[in-house]
Amino acid sequence: MKLFKDWDNKKKANVFIWLMLIITIIAYIVFSPSGIVNRYILTKKNNVLKLKIAKENQINDSLNKQINKILNDTNEIEKIAREKYGMKLPGEKIYIVPSKKKEE
Asked: pTM here?
């Protein structure tokens, strides 16, 4: 009878050891620096950064187009000088039209 009790205790101890080993391995796979949770967080951050890069590239392209337009088109330079800085050609008169207010 004692032999079976010892066998039962050894079996329980082995099951406990294997269970703890499996739990430790799973915890390492999930929570380690190269684990699933960290990988998910880094992937999310990577996607956000890719979106920011795409947005900045669009802004950069737009600014490059504006630069090329200003460098190559004298009409664009004249337009900016008139609108932004209020410049005029010699002998020109500038008329300022008041905006209409909406009646309430």
From this structure: 0.56
